[in-house]
Amino acid sequence: MKMIAKTAVAAAFVAVGGLAVLGGAQEAHAGFDICKKVKITVKNSTGGPVKLFDLDYHDYGSNRKRSENIKNRVIPNGGSYSWKRNLEGVNNAKTHIRAQYTRLKSNGRWDQARYWWSDSGASVCSRGKSYRIVLR
Q1: pTM, to two decimals
Q2: Strand, helix or coil at 54?
Q3: CA 63 from chain center: how many Å?
């Protein structure tokens, strides 16, 4: 009975180890297409404060929209905010960044029913690339 238990434990250990090796190979392969340390700057020139809630980027190679999770960020008029991010799937590929935001209504609350967006210029992404988005 002990021999069967030991054999089952050993088989489970080998199976888990094999999955870890395969998973690592897939992650390493995906890591080749990451555009690292990209600086994204958003400048607010709308005339009032805005709440930035989403950053997306376009992967022209696969015609796919990708998203970067960000915390909601209030940017005053004339202010700016910058992030450094790693963008997946676009290393040495053409892309642009889109910032989505909402504005204040006349009652001083954020307009949850509408949103606006602005895009950066499109260019080839490479390590340390800078993208600038001006909200108007």
Answers
A1: 0.76
A2: strand
A3: 16
